[in-house]
Amino acid sequence: MIKSFFFVSVASLVSVSAHAEFDLAMLHKYYTGNFTFNGKKAAVNPNVPGYNIDNKKRTVATAPSTEGSYTMAWNTEDVDFSPVLSVTEARVFPLGKDVSDINARTSTFSGDKLKSSTVCSGRASRKTVIGRPVIDTDMKCVTATKESCGRLLKAYEAEAARPGSTLAKKAEDLKKQEESCTSTLGSFKRMALAFGNQSQAIVDSDTKRIKDYVDKTTGSGIFDPTNLGKATTEGSMDKMADTYTNSVDGIQTLTYVLRTCELAQGDFEDAPRRPTSAAPTNTGSSKTDTFHTGQ
After folding, report:
1. Domain with 252 in it
2. In whole angstroms, what is the distance from residue 268 CA to residue 273 CA?
3. What is the tens place of the pLDDT at every residue in 101-148?
């Protein structure tokens, strides 16, 4: 399951002088570590050991472990021609050898008000190139400001009210919906792994046939289809399964193939037939007519 640790405030964000006192309650909304921070220094929470705080370097960190690591740093700087306090943090969750999920956030404060908060999610993988270690990252970020949050709320309200919308009617209920969605995507990925390491002759033949047909019918010749069956190692299967469950096309394809497998029970060669009074015949009937790309 994808781990999430940040919540973006959409309260009124009015910039004021950076010389004002910091609102400690609001500061705490924008860092997730279990320690105290007043905008100038951090202090250990005696009930939660494990944080290494260095107020000279303006850093907080936990030791890396199998559960991941946390780091935070703060600074004062000029942003958009005004002095601000910046607070930046990251959580790293190990997924396997040399691969980690990353959640990160940086927030800026102008006095006792929030100026911006940018949240990012991504993945880092370590590999070796010409004998040297290199870290590849794939990270997507979104910046919340007074203006962008205003536009977001209007868009959310409009989408939630749209006929047939699956959005929660109240934004505060969206977290439960996100957890449900994340769980579903995890299930899709685990199901996707079932299609790896198949007969390469069948996979190559079917994929080429699809490509030739689509190229011919569209007149483009540029389609480059992927196939889960081409993955033959644990690492390649995991990576390819991610690409399917992280795209609308991939989810749609997995949904369709699941339905196909349900309908084809007992129809594959050498597969034991399940007795039924209404067993379908394999004569090219309506079983192959259920694929509608828009559903």
Report:
1. 190-196+231-289
2. 9
3. 888 999 999 888 899 999 998 877 776 666 676 666 677 889 999 999
Same domain for 45 and 157?
yes
Q: What average pLDDT does the segment 8-31 reach?
A: 58
Please tell me the distance from the alpha carbon of residue 246 to that of residue 250, in angstroms, as a whole number. 7
Q: Which of 119, 71, 61 is nearest to 91 (CA)?
A: 71
Cβ neighbors of 232 (< 8 A, separation 6 or more) are 196, 197, 200
Residue 176 domain flag? no
Q: Global pTM? A: 0.66
* Domains in the chain, number: 2
Distances (CA, A) of 136 to 65, 72, 106, 244, 294: 21, 22, 21, 20, 35
79: nearest Cα among 123, 27, 117, 24:
117
Is 77 within 8 Å of 86 (Cβ atoms)?
Answer: yes
Weakest-pLDDT range from 173-177, 251-255, 266-270: 266-270
Mean confidence (pLDDT) of the chain: 79
31 within a domain of the structure (yes/no): yes
DSSP 187-206: HHHHHHGGGSS--HHHHHHH
User: Which phi and psi angles does 16 have, rounded to 5°?
Assistant: -135, 180
